[in-house]
Amino acid sequence: MKKERIVISVCVLNLNPCYDHWVIIEKESPIPNVLRGDKVVKLVDGKGLNIGRVFNTLGFKDYLCLNIVGGEVGKIIESGSRKEGIKSKFFWIEEENRINTAVVFEYEKRMIMINEPGPHITNLEINKFISFFQQNLKEDDKLIISGSAPQRFESYHLMELINFAKKKNCEIDVDIGGTWLKEIVESSPPDILKINSDELKVAFDIDIKETSKVNEFRKKNHIKELIITHGKEGSWGFFDETLIKATPKKIFSDYSVGSGDSFFAGYLYGKEKKFPLEECLKIATACGIANTLHYGAAIFNKQDFKDQLKNVEIKKVVL
């Protein structure tokens, strides 16, 4: 039987996938130091898989997630991805993927997220993964880089992937933080950069409200589209001489785990559909809000999304 070839236009890097375990506690425990869960939500996670999940919800299928997996948790991630229909390929390493645990104290409207450190990857595994990546990335694909990586996978390894992609004439769209963020922006600027306002301040010492400085930063680093999320205040998109603000009219929940991934996926979906920039931001914001309606990252349905489109206000400003 001939193996089916997966045709894609968007390649999503998911270097550090995980398995999420949410425990929802509806009322205070009468026993000190003992928590009894009322509901449990289990799902595969990692920014790339969350993007794939939202793509599926919106009906976009021309993508492929490249995942690094290992151990028994890796098997769960592979099985869960296939069960959800998240289009994926898997590169296997020796060490086991992480399990992240969320404890939601519903009666107090708060939660605790416990993230494991994740696996170590060997130099040999890194070299093999780079070959795996090069075999799967095609000319003129869009490369989405989102999230963290296994321990020992360094920034120069990521730069090798980016440089290869640029030689393939690929668009580079990025949503990462920390030291990698600054290095990518300064060494090999992406076409689209999605960042939150806190990361902008920490990494580049720029306040989102200093719009002239933000736009100068975008121009200086040759970033075509700079998208900054700003919590409950929505998002700001900086483009050539134009600032577009997308603001939620109503916020339903403070449970925002996965909202950034959902937002980014919505924006990328709009770009793939060649919608106007203001429509892309509107879709992105609606996805981010819809994510807060349910427990778990990127867990919402098409109707949730459609309902929230009416909950987004768009404003254009000439810079």
From TrEMBL:
Keyword Nucleotide-binding set for record: yes
Keywords in alphabetical order: ATP-binding, Kinase, Nucleotide-binding, Transferase
Gene3D superfamilies: 3.40.1190.20
Domain Carbohydrate kinase PfkB: 16-299
Domain of life of the native organism: Bacteria
GO molecular function: ATP binding; phosphofructokinase activity
GO cellular component: cytosol
Family: Belongs to the carbohydrate kinase PfkB family.
Protein name: Ribokinase
Species per Swiss-Prot/TrEMBL record: Petrotoga halophila DSM 16923
